[in-house]
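Q: Hi! New to this. If I give you a protein sequence and the SMILES for adenosine-5'-diphosphate, can you show me the bound structure?
A: Yes, paste them in.
Q: Okay, here:
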Amino acid sequence: MVSAAPAQALAPILRARAISKRFGNVIALQDVDFEAYAGDIVALIGDNGAGKSTLIKIISGAILPDSGTLAMRGSPVYFHNPRDARDAGIETAYQDLALAPDLDIPANLFLAREIVRPGLLGRLDFFDRRAMRERAEEHLRDFGIKVGSMEQRVDTLSGGQRQSIAVARTVFWGSALIIMDEPTAALGVAQSALVLDLMRKVRDAGTAVVFISHNLPQVFEAADRIAVMRHGRRVGTLDPRTATMDQAVSLMTGATTLESVSQPRSSQQNRGGNIPPS
Ligand SMILES: Nc1ncnc2c1ncn2[C@@H]1O[C@H](COP(=O)(O)OP(=O)(O)O)[C@@H](O)[C@H]1O
Ligand SMILES: [Mg+2]
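A: Thanks. Here is the predicted structure of the protein with adenosine-5'-diphosphate bound:
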């Protein structure tokens, strides 16, 4: 993609500011800033328990922060439930997929958002299965996802195909921002490549993408920016074109607390206790 200005020069599609969240005595997030830009893939990395899932659950309306604010395109937004976030164009693929295994592909793409035709004589509305199948087919074709028959139950698909359907659903509904929590965790190399490719297509179509992954090679391959979290804090931002995986690991593990290894612009301040990289 050729563009005159880097995506970050524009106002973010989504900006989270000073987000804090605790669960009982556990501080899951402390004063976290995060931003996602149109046409930009931001990877969110950090060790288990760093707060990644909590942050994206707040952005997708699944949980409420104790404090902090969210804004989209510069205007404050308040998400009280996932429906609010979805209505704002934010779509999330959680790690556990949340597909319905016994339903076919169109039914899964339209799960809980079925196309409905009014019933005759005021009777119950019914699902417009043909319309859903046609739109599902078209959408999967657009993204080069091959699944054989649309009438297959999802539990007959391979892991990679299932994940593709989950990602495709996210892409289908997410107009502003899509969030993917470990979308390639269960996939082999070829299937992962398909998912990364799909993410890039969505990015190039102008949607903001948040990509959570433990797979640093994939993160460095796909991301435009890397946000690093540790113990509930945002500890830095890396530019995958210039940073190394060692630097990413150092930030994740706290071997260094360098605020930003290679990206000069950042709103966050160092938070003390800095140990310079060796
Ligand atoms: N619903 C919850 N109840 C209690 N503790 C939670 C809950 N969700 C997350 N936590 C805790 O918050 C911290 C951050 O978790 P999480 O956001 O899932 O991290 P990550 O996704 O980076 O692995 C962890 O210590 C986790 O145990
Ligand atoms: Mg998680």
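A: Residues 7-97+176-253 form a domain with the Rossmann fold fold (CATH 3.40.50.300). Let me know if you'd like me to explain how to read the tokens.
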